[in-house]
Amino acid sequence: MTKISQRKEHPISMRLPEADIALIDRAANARGRSRTDFVREAAVRAAEDVLMEQRLIRMSADGFAHFIDHLAQPAEAVPELVDVLKRSAPWDQPSDERH
């Protein structure tokens, strides 16, 4: 008896302007990926982002009140971030100070 296996891959075909293909190819090459791998990865990532944006978060009324109270608290400074943000950018420094 012959066993029928289900196909695990499904082809997707699309028509794109030449400029789009060139852009995709440049980006894929920059990542060291094939066009197919690059487009598949980008499409899957975009699909995951859309679905995560629509995810419903459920919580009790008490939990929601606690969440809102927490958001209403004043922000606390993170000393390490404050130090980093006070530094001037490397491109704003004279070239002899960069090295």
TrEMBL record:
Species this protein is from: Sphingobium fluviale
Stored InterPro entries: Ribbon_hlx_hlx, TacA_1-like
Alphabetical UniProt keywords: DNA-binding, Repressor, Toxin-antitoxin system, Transcription, Transcription regulation
Listed Gene3D superfamilies: Single helix bin
UniProt KW Nucleotidyltransferase keyword: no
SUPFAM superfamilies per record: Ribbon-helix-helix
Protein name: DUF1778 domain-containing protein
Similarity comment: family membership: Belongs to the TacA antitoxin family.
MF (Gene Ontology): DNA binding
GO annotation (BP), single: regulation of DNA-templated transcription
Keyword Transcription: yes
